[in-house]
## 1
Amino acid sequence: MKRLTAYMMMWISGVMLPVLKADQCSNADLRGVYSFVASGTFAGVPIATAGQTTYDGKGGASGWIQFSVNGTTLPAAGPSTWTAVYNVDPSTCLATKTITLPNHSNLGPLSGAQLQFFITAGAGFRELRFISTNTGATISGTAVRQ
Amino acid sequence: MTLLEANFRLYAEQVAETTCSSPPRVGIKKENAL
């Protein structure tokens, strides 16, 4: 009987637990307003950013962003809006996001640009750590839910 | 190098040139000169 119980426990832990662990995260985990900062280099040029992201919990996001490119603010007139799509991997809880900046001359070379990110979450998705995955970008940052 | 990288670097170079080509400050007040 003890052996049977042991086999059942092994079966449950080996078969049932992975099933329970699957789909432990979803796009709904990213929802609400986050404040972020990021810095690094792009194409060898120093860059820093700060802004705000609002995740809708359904794979969409929007926000504000202000860049500093080698010490010069971009846009010069103030922060720009942006939109994004994101995806939270259900099994790993890792996320990816693609930001699209608006087509506007005040964004200079970043007008209409798409910026990709790889994101990990901590503290129950209240804190995010991310890097840019664009070619030529070495940029990392953090975000905190407000 | 992607087009975005090339344009971004060009922009940064142009901004740096503009910043550096500002006329030098002259006429330091005598009392401020060491």
Note: The helical segments of chain A are 2-21.
## 2
Amino acid sequence: MFQSAHTFVFCSPAKVLSGNRALENLPVELAGMDACRPLILTTAGLAVRGMERIMAGAFADSQLTVGFFTGVPPCPDRELVRTLYGLYRDRGYDSLIALGGGPVLTVAKALNIAVSGEPEDLEAAAAGTLESKELRPLTAIPNLDVSGYEMTRYADLASLSLTAPTAIPGLLVLDHRTVPAEDRKTTAAAALLTLTQAVEALLHPGRNHLTDAYAYGAARFIMENFRTALKNPSERGSRLALANAAFFAQTAFDNLSGGKIFCLGMAISRRCAVSPGLVMGLLLPHGLLMEMDREETPGKDLFLAVGGAEDYALVEEGMGLRKTVDRCVELLLELQSLIPDYPRSIRDIGLKKSDLEELPGAADEVTGRGTLALPEVRYLLDKAWETRF
Amino acid sequence: MRGGVFLALCFSPGISGDPGHRFGGAGWFIDGDAKEEDCPNGNEGEVIIAVMESLTMDNFREIPAGGKPFKRIYVALMLWFVGRAIQAAARVDEAVGEEFAALPDGFTFSLGVLPRGPAMIVGKGEEGQVRYRGWRLAGQRIDLQMKIKNLEGALLMFTFQESTAVATARNRLIVDGEVPAACAIVRILDRVEVYLLPKIIAKLAVKRYPDWPWEEKVGNRIRIYAGAILGFR
Amino acid sequence: MYLPGYYEYSCRVKIVAGHDALEGIPALLRHVGARRPLLVTDKGVAGAGLVDIVRQAIGDRLEIGAVADDVPPDSDLKVVHRLSALYRENGCDAMIAVGGGSVMDTAKGINIVVSERAEDLMKFSGSGALKRPLKPLIAVPTTAGTGSEVTLVAVIKDHERHLKMAFVSFFLLPDAAILDSRMTLSLPAPITASTGMDALTHAVEAYYCLSKNPLSDVTALAAIRLISGNLLKVVRKPSDREGRLAMANAATLAGMAFSNSMVGMVHTLGHATGSVCGVPHGVCMAILLPYGLEYNRHKREVVMGELLFPIGGPGIYGQTAPEDRTNRVIAYVRQLNEDLHEMTGGRHARFLGEVIDREGNPAVPRERLPDIARTALGDGSIFYNPEDLDYDDLLMVLEAAWEGMPLDSGRIRKG
């Protein structure tokens, strides 16, 4: 098993409640965090899907009154945070519940930083220098419309990117009622984005026993459940498994950093308005093939996560990475057969050849730390451009 | 001020147009009192109430906690019945009697639902007699409190979708008090459930369905039902 | 991978692990605004020079308010209050706990007293009494181990009133756990063996007991893989730094697993044996672990078979038919005990009848087994065991564990 040679640090601050009637535990969990007046933030789209009734039911019999705001847009900005700051303070709320995906979590994290201290703290969070004081309770109730950042320290408001470990939600609730069935493309995108985060965590030079454990769990849940989630979306267990996987992969990701597949996928997605997961799926096999050329690649452990113990036990020495690539390609082909107009190449999603020049730089900005080797990113891009699955 | 969403803004007549919302600037929103430093041009105390356009009655509301009356009644009835059945079982079943005998005199335990019931209380009197003591927790000294975290968790237990063991494993319960006593109470509850429920359901409620002689089981079952319904002491 | 109908998991302790993890302590404390910690430890740890190593690693980057090195082997209420006074007198604002389970529990107890200004610690017992974060606490385990650096439980004994108080709260968790290979390099072979088996038991029971969940599973599997690859190595060669670090990681991973997934019969009987006969926890765990597997296997056959992968390795796993895997897991555990027994010159006991106390007398007389069985009936872990356990079942297992004979599967009453 991989032994990191250096000292590692790992932290996962969230408590997770997952499964049947998980939402009904909210009142008692909030009480344990000394909170009794939560403000729920969500989107109009989710409100229309019955979330208000579900949350009302979860809090029924609790004697608590909750605020319910449904105006989070797809690209929230500071104005909204400002507005909600006033609402929060004026109405005397003492905790936040983010019901939804990336945009809702982004607003909630920023708002929580502002209401727990001062609005000026947002500037510190943008500079990555926010003090490590504990914030007010923030609960995340995400679904399968996954951005990859929900349970991480990152929040990207329009024109303000925040990095704050204390902003990671302290409570995560996964309940089949708030992880509704999505269309196949959304589900596939969630699975692929999560798989990418897990795979890159298992290949990351800074990986450790804990990120390996979380990434293993994520990859297993994806590989064992994506088929059912796509073909039989009413089946609750597989949807919940994917939602669990997203959390595990994001935790590993948060403790390491984005790899080239993730960052390039994000950069392309922002240009083409195609969901990042679908793009990452197209990049994944190429990214893995690039790893095969390295000397000390933990390819075998990777196949344990992607292939499972039974298959792994039968794989020959040195063949782990190759088998992983094969599995990923099989996955892509299967997705293509299940989803009409599934993209077969990054050439098919609105990308122009002239875009290729700037993309490596854009990918490096995703991680914001200059950690990517730009020539490698370019190579990956070129290979993906040449391929149609 | 409570019918909609209102935010207090402080601005001086000298500033026109945009009220100067800025991050990191001189304050942001002030609810209630305006502070002098937030009004740089000095109109201390002048507070104007305005409705922010982005907050409307359509996208914000407050949801008061409703109730679940029928579920509460069901759980209350089940707790009442189980409490009285325990009282009867303590007289009728030897093992239950022994478990109670090992507990101190005056020992009282409760099983209830957070945050405000329903609940049932069973206590051991000074002479060792086991009594159902009703549902009012206030004012009673209770040695062992078993609190189900919410009504839905109680419903899962009392519709036997989750056995006591599974409910415990799933953290549906908070136990406040001595753990050995809690172990005894759970064993008592398991035995009482075997008496009260038909085998097909009881097998879901307990880890290992016991192999009791048929006549004894049925005889005790009748006595416990009678005791629970008619309240024989 | 198994997804239960409902589960809960939390472990928000920051894990810092490496050959020079101790050097990170000043920055960690500064990060949470602390400047003057109380260092809590025991005489054994101090005597082994470990406190000196910690102080050297910290250097002059942090001022240690005071050092309390007289924590007894069993956490004690009076000690908690005395050390709380020491904390206050020295103007401390945080704690560093360097030691095993008792030191950790004592430090957690002190934290309640000093953070809540508690006159009567009893008021905070049970769960739910603590509502706010406590003072910063850094845990530096010196065994591999109990896993108490990541548990939200503290047990403090009131020896005067013969009471055992259990405190359960999210807020008891240390802020950080420092896993540094230097802390276990000098651990003697028999303790390395028993604490290693303690960690293995935590991981194995977490994997098959009733609160099993995905995160406790992945951490348990990682722990078992590390233990099976390193325990014998470090008993054979105590100075193996990589092996020691691997075991330290394994113990913490196992702690994360069992603190969320709970434990079962092995702990039920182990706690009782410790309580009635004074046998160290790890010794009980090692002896009883195979019995936990045997007793529960009819309810957990498939799950236990999965353990062959981390415990025996992928090759053995692939070659073994699924229906034989649990047998091999049980055999591996028994063999591990045999190997440890041999490598420690007979000091690692393989069955209860073999355990001797400090004076060299048998620690578990056969006549006391009924007492142990009765005490075990009051242990909370009994709830989480897959199969039901009554007095007769417990006694049957104890008898077999006393003699060192496998359980007769015909005598197990299956629910």
Note: The CA atoms of residues 240 and 265 of chain A lie 25 Å apart.
